[in-house]
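User: Good morning. I'm curious how NAP would be positioned relative to this chain. Could you predict the structure with it bound?
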Amino acid sequence: MDFKQQHVIITGGSSGIGKATAQLLASKGAHISIIGRTQAKLEAAKTEIEAARSHLNQRVVTISANVADRVQVEQAINTAMNQIGPPDLLITSAGIAHPGYFQELPIEVFERTMAINYFGSLYALKSVLPVMEQRRQGHVVLISSGSGLIGIYGYTPYSPSKFALRGLAESLRGEVKLSGIHISIVYPPDTDTPQLEEENKTKPIETKMITNTAKTWSAEDVAREIIWGIRRKSFAITPGAKMMLLGWLHSPLASGINWYFDQIVAKTRCQGATRW
Ligand SMILES: NC(=O)c1ccc[n+]([C@@H]2O[C@H](COP(=O)([O-])OP(=O)(O)OC[C@H]3O[C@@H](n4cnc5c(N)ncnc54)[C@H](OP(=O)(O)O)[C@@H]3O)[C@@H](O)[C@H]2O)c1
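Assistant: Good morning! Here's the predicted structure, ligand included:
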């Protein structure tokens, strides 16, 4: 994929992995729309993204919205499309993590985590898909986590929200593929961002001992892996050897099963059983 003059919408593009990916895409010639809640963070990120552009005619648009609110997400995506045009690429990076012991965490933490991490991504995806389907092109990248491949001690609100994204990506993949749309799901390892700093404040000691067994990545290195994965149209993007191994082996049959399901879908479509 050549990113020149492409329109990329990134939720959570004002910080961490989302911002690093926005900068890298800007350096490759893309127009960027970033969505987040905090205006000051959006403005600061805009300056950094603009500085990374390869050409001064590239647009960088900031939109303040809470992704947990469906109407706000729909309006934000519409604003981005009105300002720059139809999206070629959507990256849903907005997310939160609040680790702790299950019994000590109030139910609101579970609800908020699912609302932002899962529904926030779903709302953005739902808003761009009709336009992508109409153009019969587009790529959607959902940012999950290593905790979306394997449940990790202390992450009882977070892991299910990231597993949910994996379920969404796996079940939607074959459906949108026939409309020329690609889905990718990213499983980043621990990455040095404000979110990780925030997580460390409430992380149980057991969780720290588990997560300390892997190295912490920089947001820029994760962004490079994401771009590489998009270029290759990879379904699962697994930065580093450990994530790659986990991605392959958490369910060794998945790729074969996907292939088998795709044959059934293609056969059904050939028989004219659906709107295609
Ligand atoms: N860092 C890691 O170790 C790690 C590992 C695996 C996966 N991930 C995942 O990668 C993604 C990015 O994380 P990060 O570490 O880059 O985090 P980050 O630096 O804290 O950035 C999070 C971004 O999401 C936005 N955001 C959060 N809640 C939002 C809401 N309700 N509505 C709109 N925007 C919202 C934030 O802006 P505002 O606060 O201004 O809204 C910010 O732009 C997340 O989905 C995270 O779960 C991170």
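The domain at 7-267 is CATH 3.40.50.720 (Rossmann fold). The radius of gyration is 18 Å.
Let me know if you'd like a different ligand tried.
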